[in-house]
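During the reporting period the student researcher (J.K.) took over the structure-prediction task from the postdoctoral fellow and processed the backlog of single-chain submissions. One of the processed entries is reproduced below for the supervisory committee.
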Amino acid sequence: MRTLRLRSAAPSSSAVLLCAIAACGTTDPPLSDDVVLNEPLELLFPADNWWNRDVSQAPVDPESGALIDWICDRAGPADPCGASLHPDFGPHPYGIPYIVVGGGQPLEEVRFVLYGSESDDGAPGRPPGYPIPTEARDEAGWIEGGVAGGGDSGDRHLLVVDRERRLLFELWATRYDGSDGVWEAGSGAVFDLTSNDRRPEGWTSADAAGLAVLPGLIRADEVLGGNEIRHAFRVTVRATNGHVWPASHTAGSTTGAPPLGTRLRLKESVDLSSYPPEIQRVFTAMKRYGLIIADNGSDMFIQGTMDERWDNDVLNPAFRSLSADDFEVIESGWQP
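J.K. obtained the following structure tokens:
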């Protein structure tokens, strides 16, 4: 049996502790200025957040079969499913990197050019701006798409965690405008990682569904770590129809399509015993926590980090062995 190879990377010297305020005390944390790409993270958001809820016993939606048939794009009941899983991540330039910074990281002005009225200028109670390090402007591999400064094509997500303040800053359609030295983005959102607050109803984020992006990514540090992966993953389908909780934003009205916020769950009957342990860990999370439809894109593309440790020669065939037919849809808008 071939084992998934995650190419070695030196461990970070600065551990991340995203703890609850009660556990950390109420005094101001020390402010560091170190910057780490893809630093290992603890669980993002509280354990009862929608990303982190065990949904293995959640009820199946009455329309599950019809929604899966739509994702499979069947012309008739005898047709095979045309929607195999695909890992939408890998080594540079595939996937979405994330940056972890200290609380002393200077804030950069961001100019929003598409969804300014639904975007956050900065963190509540803090000066405007996002803590974007200069590396994202000057070096490849810090923004989705792999281009220094973001470039001009693709989704270009830029994700930054302030490790001391436990804040998550996310931008979409990001680029650095060298003509006036200002970052631009289509939209942006700031999330308190100790809170379960949703975006205002009707608002987007850096994600079409109004959700945070980072907690739904498959990360190399999780797969390497050997422990259970304890959160759902972010997935796309070709079109959507409205939105349901926990999503806050609509990005389509295609008849028969699932809403943004729909959660898919890998069926318990799917046998995982033939997969390498690392792949079993990923697929087991799909049984326990599921996939949340967060954006329009290619059917059953599951997002993860841009990381040189990924080996897509292992990931691709493992993911392709499953299709939408191996999943069921949890009751629409289900909350425990």
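The committee noted the following: The radius of gyration is 19 Å.
J.K. will present the remaining backlog at the next meeting.
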